[in-house]
Write a structure and sequence with these properties.
Layout (H helix, E strand, L loop, with lengths): L2 E5 L2 E4 L4 E8 L8 E6 L6 E6 L6 E3 L7 E6 L4 E6 L8 E7 L18 E2 L3 E6 L1
Parallel strand pairs: 2-11
Antiparallel strand pairs: 1-3, 3-8, 4-5, 4-9, 5-6, 7-8, 9-10, 9-11
């Protein structure tokens, strides 16, 4: 059974930084893509960033490009999201997710329904 546990959320002022981490357990996810999504009140779940199984390919939502960086350490079974220059509109619950049905996939997926395991989420609040 795959488990994903996010940490690192909190309250930060606009312009500040946070680093989210996702610890995985239950099985190795080194063959699978990983993604970060967020859910804000009144909005649909939104893709934020994704990384390929090898870490060589990444994708970002336009709203976070140049400010967020996703990375992974397969030896430690962790995925991170470095968030800089945070804005109030980044306020949301952030979720780590993976798709275990595809091994060594060639593309990083951005649709929530393509991911089949999710963490419980961590709250990020950016004050103006």
């Amino acid at each position: 059974q795959v488990q994903l546990v996010e940490s690192g959320g909190g309250l930060v002022q606009a312009g500040g930084s946070l680093r989210l981490s996702c610890a995985t357990s239950g099985r190795s996810l080194s063959m699978n893509n990983m993604g970060w999504f967020r859910l804000a009140p009144g909005k649909e779940r939104e893709f934020v960033a994704g990384i390929s199984w090898s870490g060589s390919s990444t994708r970002y939502a336009d709203s976070v490009k140049g400010r967020f960086t996703i990375s992974r350490d397969n030896a430690k079974n962790t995925v991170s999201l470095q968030m800089n220059s945070l804005k109030p509109e980044d306020t949301a619950v952030y979720y780590c997710a993976t798709d275990v049905s595809r091994r060594f996939p060639s593309t990083v997926l951005t649709v929530p329904n393509e991911y089949n395991y999710w963490g419980q989420g961590t709250q990020v609040t950016v004050s103006s």
